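Reminder to self: C-alpha cells first, then the designed residues, so the page reads top to bottom the way the pipeline ran.
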C-alpha cells in the first residue's frame, strides 16, 4: 500500500524552478534541506469529486506510487518521497536531466545499429524488471525514455501514471496512451497484457532506426486505422536503405496484431539483433546505421506538435476563464447577469439564454 506523508513539502524541500508539466501536474526541481541533494518534485492535482474531470483520481495516484515503490532498477526512475496534501499529491522523484534519448542520438554525426541495439537492450532490461512483477508500463514512447544526465548513457524509463499490474488471465481493458504507440488491443477495447508494452517497443525501434513513425496518419482516426490494419512496411529506401535485416526481423516479431504471438521481453533480449550469435550478425549491426537526418525531422515535428498543444490548452483555459468571469458578473443590485441575456433581470424567474455556437 502506498504511504504518504502529510506534512508540508516546504518543511523538507526547497522548491526551485519549473522543469516540466503535464495535463494535471507540474514538475519542479526541489532540493532536500537535510542533504542538499536535488530531486524532481511532481505536483499532481487531485480530482475534487467523482463528477469532476479536472485532476487525477486519488486511486490512480495511489496505484502509480505503489508501483514505483515496488520497482528498483538502474534504468527506472526511483521514488524518494511522497506527500499528500488537501488539493494535491507531491512525488519526490530521482532527477533526470539528460533529455530524451532520441534527441541525444539525433545530435550525433553517425550512429550504427550496434549502439542503437545497446540502448534498446537497456529499455528491455528495465521492462523485464517490470514484467517479472506483472507490471505493464502502457505509455512507452520517446518522451518517456530519458538519459539520466548528459555525462552518462544510462537511460531511464519515466512516467508511470498509466501503469497497471496485469496478472496472467486477468481481463483488464482500457483506452489509454498516445495514438502512434498504442497496440491494436487498446483501440479494439480488448484485454491488455504485458505484451501490450512489446508492441510499443516495436514502434519505438522502427522510429529510432528510420525517423519514420510507422502508423502515424493525418489525424487520430487514420492513425488508429493504420494500427488495427498493421499497415507498415520497410520498402521506402529514403528511410530503410541502411537498416539491417536483423533489425527488421526484430520489429516484425513485435508488430503483430495478436498479442500472444508477439515476442516477449525475454525473447527480445535473446534476439540476434540484441545479442548476436555470430560474427556475421555482429558485422551486420556495425555496418548498418540510423537515418539521423530523418530522426532530427521527427524530433522537430514532435516539438512543433507539442508547442501547438500548449497553445491550444492556453487558448482553452483563457476561454474558460472569460466564460467564468462573464457568468459571475453582477448588476448594481447584486443580481447575476447572464452574459447572453439582453433584457432586464426578472427576480422571480431564471434568465433566458441563447446557445453559444
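Designed residues (357 positions):
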Amino acid at each position: 500500500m502506498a504511504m504518504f506523508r502529510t506534512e508540508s513539502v516546504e518543511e523538507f524541500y526547497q522548491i526551485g524552478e519549473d522543469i516540466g508539466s503535464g495535463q494535471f501536474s507540474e514538475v519542479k526541481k526541489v532540493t532536500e534541506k537535510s542533504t542538499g541533494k536535488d530531486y524532481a518534485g511532481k505536483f499532481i492535482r487531485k480530482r475534487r469529486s467523482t463528477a469532476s474531470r479536472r485532476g487525477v483520481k486519488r486511486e490512480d495516484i495511489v496505484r502509480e506510487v505503489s508501483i514505483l515503490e515496488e520497482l528498483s532498477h538502474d534504468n527506472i526512475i526511483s521514488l524518494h518521497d511522497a506527500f499528500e496534501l488537501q488539493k494535491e499529491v507531491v512525488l519526490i522523484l530521482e532527477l533526470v536531466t539528460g533529455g530524451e534519448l532520441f534527441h541525444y542520438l539525433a545530435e550525433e554525426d553517425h550512429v550504427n545499429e550496434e549502439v542503437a541495439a545497446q540502448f534498446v537492450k537497456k529499455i528491455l532490461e528495465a521492462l523485464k524488471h517490470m514484467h517479472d512483477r506483472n507490471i505493464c508500463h502502457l505509455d512507452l514512447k520517446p518522451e518517456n525514455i530519458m538519459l539520466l544526465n548528459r555525462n552518462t548513457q544510462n537511460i531511464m524509463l519515466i512516467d508511470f501514471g498509466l501503469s497497471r499490474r496485469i496478472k496472467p488471465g486477468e481481463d483488464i481493458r482500457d483506452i489509454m496512451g498516445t495514438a502512434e504507440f498504442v497496440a491494436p488491443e487498446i483501440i479494439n477495447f480488448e484485454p491488455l497484457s504485458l505484451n501490450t508494452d512489446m508492441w510499443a517497443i516495436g514502434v519505438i525501434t522502427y522510429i529510432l532506426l528510420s525517423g519514420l513513425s510507422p502508423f502515424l496518419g493525418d489525424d487520430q482516426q487514420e492513425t488508429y486505422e493504420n494500427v488495427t490494419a498493421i499497415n507498415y512496411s520497410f520498402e521506402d529506401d529514403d528511410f530503410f536503405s541502411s537498416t539491417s535485416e536483423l533489425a527488421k526481423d526484430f520489429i516484425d516479431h513485435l508488430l503483430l496484431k495478436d498479442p500472444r504471438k508477439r515476442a516477449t521481453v525475454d525473447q527480445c533480449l535473446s534476439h540476434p539483433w540484441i545479442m548476436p550469435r555470430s560474427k556475421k550478425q555482429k558485422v551486420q549491426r556495425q555496418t548498418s546505421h540510423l537515418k539521423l537526418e530523418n530522426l532530427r525531422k521527427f524530433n522537430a515535428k514532435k516539438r512543433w506538435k507539442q508547442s501547438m498543444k500548449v497553445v491550444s490548452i492556453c487558448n482553452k483555459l483563457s476561454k474558460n476563464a472569460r466564460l467564468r468571469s462573464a457568468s459571475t458578473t453582477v448588476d448594481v443590485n447584486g443580481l447575476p447577469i447572464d452574459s447572453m441575456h439582453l433584457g432586464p433581470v426578472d427576480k422571480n424567474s431564471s434568465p433566458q439564454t441563447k446557445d453559444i455556437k
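Residues 308-314, 328-357 have pLDDT under 50 and may be disordered.
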